[in-house]
Amino acid sequence: MTLGKGRLLAIASGKGGVGKTWVSISLAQALAERGRRVLLVDGDFGLANIDVQLRLDPGRDLGDALAGGALPAPHPAGFAVLVGRSGSGALAGLEAAPVLALLQRLGQAYDDVLLDLPAGVAPGVRRLAARADLLLVVATGEPTSLTDAYAVLKLHRQDAPSGAARVVVNQASGRLAGEATWRTLDTACRRFLGAGVPLAGVIRRDALVPAAIRAQVPLLTRSPGAAAAADVRALTAGLGAPTPALLGA
Ligand SMILES: Nc1ncnc2c1ncn2[C@@H]1O[C@H](COP(=O)(O)OP(=O)(O)OP(=O)(O)O)[C@@H](O)[C@H]1O
Ligand SMILES: [Mg+2]
Fold it and tell me: CATH code for 7-239?
């Protein structure tokens, strides 16, 4: 999707609770540390979480922005954020089309727009994922997460045959275990979908992650030396600058 010079990165997983929201926030901060202008958007319209993990007052949310009355708020961690509102009936039924139009308009001012998608493969989620320049599919080593991540990748191939997707393995017990998790997905994609899926990176399980979430302070601010923070930074380095391959039409 054309966002001026920027790109739309969507974060999905199929299965809930694997770390999409935390990964989205951490990637936003790590990309901002690299000097990129980043907008983080809560795409979980009914059960928004970014405001909770960042302890933000969702005074002005996506609904207000759609109505033309609000701009993304700057966060001290260096990126702008557009929050949702948990339990908001008004946002729960939101359609993909107006959100994409909003992202296209707001996205002009940013290098990277990160969209934290909800769990599941509802039609609206698929439509948003299909328009991303790069879909990051978060998976853990649990069989249910792998099955759901594979389903997301399969549907994405149908919805966006030339779309790019990569796997983020989260909560890995170690780098090798994380790579083994990715290889399982890659092998399934090669065998049944005709092409593999690249690994974006492995993020280790780290007790400092839930501690930061409980404190409602981003990990890269609270524990910049944490193993998981290092993994996020390494992953971000691999995402690089927008390339023609990533910039879908
Ligand atoms: N690398 C990690 N190490 C340890 N714990 C983690 C890690 N990543 C995520 N978690 C744990 O997973 C929990 C769920 O994370 P998060 O809310 O970001 O998941 P989600 O996929 O966005 O969930 P939902 O599907 O409900 O939106 C966090 O509260 C945290 O405790
Ligand atoms: Mg979430």
Answer: 3.40.50.300
